[in-house]
Predict the structure.
Amino acid sequence: MSATSLMSADLPNASDAHAPDAAAIDTLHDDLATLGSASDELGADWLDDAAPSHANAAGGGEQAAPAPLAMRETLRRVPVKLTLEVGAARLTLGELAALRADDVLSLDRPAGAPLSVLVNGVPVGLAEVVVSGTQYGLKILTLDAIELDRLAQ
């Protein structure tokens, strides 16, 4: 029975004259908690198949099971956002409010330094800006091993 049907079967609507007793409400809460934890376990088991083992990363423990082929193929089709991070500057809200056109801010990265490549906000490598036709492009300099399940979050 789904959580929706449990709720509609056990909870009164505004037109019901009889409210459920405390035991019925406790049973409903227990059923919903069981459904929620079962769903969490199934989802975690499915995703954990692709995640590297923490014990394995430390040099010991069992080898993590590879992700099922179907899951890897599904993750390969997930759209992601790739961004190139030029740098950052820290300033107060007052300084931000005082900025005007033609003001120049120094960033925390030296000119000519490789820029960070991020996928969904996760750093995955370094690149430099190039011109590709009439648009900016990026030339990949280094790329870390990409863990698909980590990037799909």
The chain has two domains: 3-10+18-48, 79-151. The chain is about 35% helix and 20% strand. The beta strands are 82-85, 115-119, 122-132, 135-143. The longest helix spans residues 22-48.
